Amino acid sequence: MAEYVAYLDETISFEERAKDLVSRMTLEEKVFQTLFTAPAIERLGVKAYNWWNEALHGVARAGVATVFPQAIGLAATFDEDLLEEVADAISTEGRAKFNVSQKYNDTGIYKGLTFWSPNVNIFRDPRWGRGHETYGEDPYLSSRMGVRFIKGIQGHHDKYLKAAACAKHFAVHSGPEDIRHSFNAVVSVQDLYETYLPAFKACVQEAEVEAVMGAYNRTNGEPCCGSKRLLEDILRDEWGFKGHVTSDCWAIKDFHENHMVTSTPTESVALAMNNGCDLNCGSIYGHLLYAIRDGLVDEKTLDEAVTRLVTTRMKLGLFDNPEAVPFNSIGYEQVDCNIHKELNLKASRKSIVLLKNENSILPLDKSKLKTVGVIGPNANNRKALVGNYEGTASEYITVLEGIKDYLGEEIRVYYSEGCHLYKEKLQGLGEKNDRLAEVRAVCDMSDVVIACFGLDPGLEGEEGDQGNEFASGDKPNLNLPGLQGEIIQEIYKSGKPVILVLLSGSALSIPWEDEHIPAIIQGWYPGAQGGRAIAEMIFGEFSPEGKLPITFYRTTEELPDFTDYNMINRTYRYMKKEALYPFGYGLSYTSFELSNISISGEEILPGQEIVCSADIKNTGSMVGAETLQVYVKVNKEDAPNWQLKGLKKVTLNPGEQKTIAITLKDEAFGLYDGNGKLMLNEAEYVIYIGTCQPDARSIQLTGQKPYHKVLHSHKTVELS
Fold first, then answer.
1. Is 221 left (phi over 0), alpha (psi -120 to 50) or beta?
2. What does the pLDDT read at residue 466?
């Protein structure tokens, strides 16, 4: 009779099976399972597995895949349902690629099912190079987008994960990039819980994210990948996280090389392992052999870590009968399929934000045009379509290509690159501003000029990304780099109508452009189909519906020091000056009217909900989508300005009306105190319902003033 092997028994829990499998491993085998390049253990039937894969806005770095808009653009959709739809498509392609890789015995990097996405760090400073990987500056919006992205990646099967998502970088991480390996982010308990942790908490408790990645920096003195406070006290004990923790790549060697909190590699791996970092992106965990030999790590601690890692692989169905795992049937024809291309175009359309539209110059009527000028370094720049952590698209449509395709043969399109993205000339032997005459010629020949400027991932990104012009990846300021501002002014001087399209992953300071250019579009890094979406939007094929997930400040000067992690004067929640374009703002080609607005109750009580409802009607002539936004302000000293606490997007035909209800739980009214406790304060609370923030600038730009109602709480209590 064959021996019963528990880890092969598909009727018992994954955790029981994982414990049994780990109990059969030698010490050396267990140690090497904690490396991201986990080797095969042939005698136990364990295949080699590489944990490192990326899926920020499409399956990345593994060949052809659908390249969706960069994460910041997806956030600008303010559309939770869309985020899950996009993530579901990504994980479908991820499974298809994994299945093919397994068929041909490719177990290399970027071939697994553990996707190190999403990035739910808070984009607290617009100079941070990696901000475009995030869902913006607001904890609530980041939470909603992160939760739905994870659900799309991981799926809803009652037994197996479609793929495993990872919330990163835990925690208090948003630059500067050039000192991230040695930097200590000092943060108050209040800011930690009010700003930096909510998105992670939602990912853990609502989305049941399978993995969490630590950050490079220290937080309040502790390196994040070995922080007892973050990984043990908060993540596992407070929040009940059951999945595994991975280090950021080569972050653990920073403990002794840069943070100087340990003296040797052995001490570093002991600090990380003892505080709950299960997986090492890097190779330093090989030193666990010495750490256990020297008594710095108990072998039981290693067993727990490896059990968590094996459990994840089992949840993915990697140890089960292939026919029992439904995702094994996903074929390669799903990669870059037409359905996903259509979804990509839909996401691009929904991400575009219309910032200015003076005298309704947009949409343009092509029947009234004979010539169109397209000028700018981002007009035909593929890099500016995709952002970083990207896959390879089978087709890229730049803004220039999108406009040419849309206009066809009957309208002549004139093009000039205008200037280099950041250098003073385009040709090596050329003189400064060597396209100026061409710019003037294109303007002369054109009925209207579409100016396409901004940044690309070579100017903002991660430290060490190849070709990043600013070395560290962060921006030195918020200005348009190089000669871009001069060329935009030259185009304006021509007297021709100008449509400015900005492609960037972050806020730019454009007060001159706001004052002089009649139409301004924020296109983000809009994905491989982005040029098509932008062209269709300019010529009125659809109405823009994106909203800003970040604040566009007027200048860099009003920002605190980049290394200051205090939230005072940062983001719409704490800023004191007026924004150029506020968080939550975006125009439409159609118009909407709110009526029958109501907010239930007069008093806020623990355990009770407040229902906010409104009728929203499309009073314009185009199909359009609008986002109902609910903000809460606590009239208390040192409280934030107001905070987004509810949102719902709705699409309406002309003349159509729908009723939207948004329910606020008691926690929506809570503020964290200096001990990290969520408190309902004895105070006056103002609830705002509208299609933008209640700040003066939003009201000025939109002509819409949110409805508000004052409620009270008559005692201070801790919320559970």
1. left
2. 61
Residue 689, classed as helix, strand or coil, is strand
Share of the chain residues as helix, strand and coil, in percent rounded to the nearest 5: 35, 20, 50
Note whether 617 and 652 are within 8 A (CB).
yes
Alpha-carbon distance values, 65 to 55, 68, 92, 399, 521 (Å): 10, 9, 11, 21, 27
E strands, 310-465, in order: 353-357, 371-375, 412-416, 448-454
pLDDT given for residue 436 in this prediction: 98
3-state SS, residue 657: strand
| Residues paired with residue 684 on neighbouring β-strands, in sequence order | 635, 712
CA atoms of 399 and 43, how far apart (whole Å): 55
**CA 134 to CA 196: how far, in whole Å?**
13
Token pair listed for 367: 């029947």
| Beta strand pairing call for 166-170 and 211-214 | parallel
What local confidence, expressed as pLDDT, does residue 556 receive? 73
| The 222-223 sheet, strands edge to edge | 184-185, 218-219, 222-223
Predicted confidence at residue 122, as pLDDT, reads 98
Give the Cα separation of 316 and 309 in Å (integer).
11
Ramachandran angles phi, psi of 581, nearest 5°: -130, 120
| Residue 9: HSE in the Cβ half-sphere, 13 Å Cα cutoff | 15
**How far apart, in whole angstroms, are the C-alpha atoms of residue 560 and residue 549?**
20
Query: Diameter of the chain by CA atoms?
Result: 90
Report the alpha-carbon distance of residue 171 to residue 28 in Å, rounded. 31
Q: CA 471 to CA 694: how far, in whole Å?
A: 39
How far apart, in whole angstroms, are the C-alpha atoms of residue 604 and residue 407?
56
Q: How far is residue 717's CA from residue 720's CA, in Å, rounded to a whole number?
A: 9
C-alpha–C-alpha distance, residues 384 and 148, integer Å: 26
Catalytic-role residue among 248, 490, 513, 545 = 248
- Which residue among 460, 536, 626, 695 is the active-site one? 460
Q: How many CA atoms lie within 13 A of 538 on its CB side?
A: 31
Q: Please give the Cα distance from 167 to 163 (Å, whole number).
A: 13
Q: Which residues pair with 650 in a beta bridge?
A: 626
Q: Which amino acid is at 201?
A: K
Nearest CA to 688 out of 608, 572, 545, 575 is that of: 572
Nearest Cα to Cα of residue 644 among 72, 143, 131, 128: 143
What domains can be seen in the chain, in order of their start residue? 6-334 (3.20.20.300), 352-558 (3.40.50.1700), 592-718 (2.60.40.10)
Q: Rounded distance, CA 150 to CA 167, Å? A: 8
Q: What is the pTM of this model?
A: 0.98
pLDDT at 6: 94
- Blockwise average pLDDT, block size 10, the chain, 720 residues: 88 98 98 98 97 98 98 98 98 98 97 98 97 98 98 98 98 95 97 98 98 98 98 98 98 98 98 98 98 98 98 98 97 98 98 98 97 98 97 98 97 98 95 97 98 96 78 90 98 98 98 98 98 98 98 86 96 96 98 98 95 98 98 95 98 98 97 96 97 98 97 94
Please name which of 671, 530, 513, 643 lies closest in space to residue 581, comparing C-alpha atoms. Answer: 513
Residues 662 and 612: beta-carbon distance below 8 Å: yes
Residue appearing with tokens 């150029």: 580
CA distance 664 to 633: 13
DSSP secondary structure letter of residue 34: T
Q: CA–CA separation, 530 vs 377, rounded Å?
A: 16
Burial environment of residue 380 by CB neighbours within 10 A (0 to 12, 13 to 18, 19 or more): middle
248 is catalytic: yes
Q: Residue 664 carries which side chain, given as an amino acid letter? A: L
Q: Is 79 a catalytic residue?
A: no
Cα separation, 185 vs 231, in Å, equals 16
> What backbone torsions phi and psi does residue 6 show, to the nearest 5 degrees?
-60, -40
Separation between Cα atoms, residue 140 and residue 363, nearest integer Å: 32
